[in-house]
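Subject: Sanity check before I submit

Could someone independently write out the structure tokens for this chain? I want to compare against mine line by line before I put it in a report. The sequence has 264 residues.
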Amino acid sequence: MKKLSENKNSRKALAVAAAAVTAAAIGLSACSAQAQSPGTIVVQNQDVSANQLTVSGKEEVRVVPDMAEIVFSIRTQKPTAQECQQENAKNLNDTIEKLKSLGVDERSIQTSAYGLDPIYNWNSDTREITGYEMNTQLTVSDIPIDEAGSIMSQSVVAGVNSIDNVSYFCSTYDESYQEALKKAIEMAKGKASAMAEASGRTLGEVSNVEEYGYNPYARYTGYMSGGSARNEMAMETAAAAMDMGVMAGEISVEAQVSVTFNLQ
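---
Independent answer below. Compare away.
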């Protein structure tokens, strides 16, 4: 009987211990739930980028071109390949000599393409060759705008029978691009200031600036040099070109930037 009583007491002690452990677990769970309640926010390792604002700016400056590049073609058709080549070469040489007599430097004249092809009679079952055609392309660079019209007219007289393309360039491109960059950054600053004010913050210093989309297709690098003198010359040559029927118009110089500001 004594042994049976001891066993009962042992089981009772185990039950009390288990109840205590369960109560402790419930207490810990309640504390954990209270610590993770939605009303409590713990901020650790705050992201610095939250105190920065990145905006983009894009501007353009319109400039008057003062230089041109012209692509001519000399096309010849003759019954034989040899006759075709000889006639084409004569017209080509006459054109080059005419260009040089007009003051075009040899370094600005480039034979940029050749082509000699048979001419077929497509109505014949045997694809009979009826002659030959040769095309020589001549690219002439560094042409002042005021001389472009005269050079095109006299080149046609000398032997050119196709004007394939005329491109315009500006010797003051770099100055214009720098002006566009300044305007683009000012635009970005204005946008950032408005956004900061609207969000109740104060715009701070610039922390980073990046340039995008630089495409100087109209940039001229050649014989001409000298800042403001080039601007005056560009206006004068453009006016002279208009008298000859060459309307160069204006070139768009664009700049695009991304600017990051600190917020206070």
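---
OP: Matches mine. For the report I'm noting this point. The beta strands are 52-63, 67-78, 109-121, 128-144, 162-169, 203-212, 251-263.
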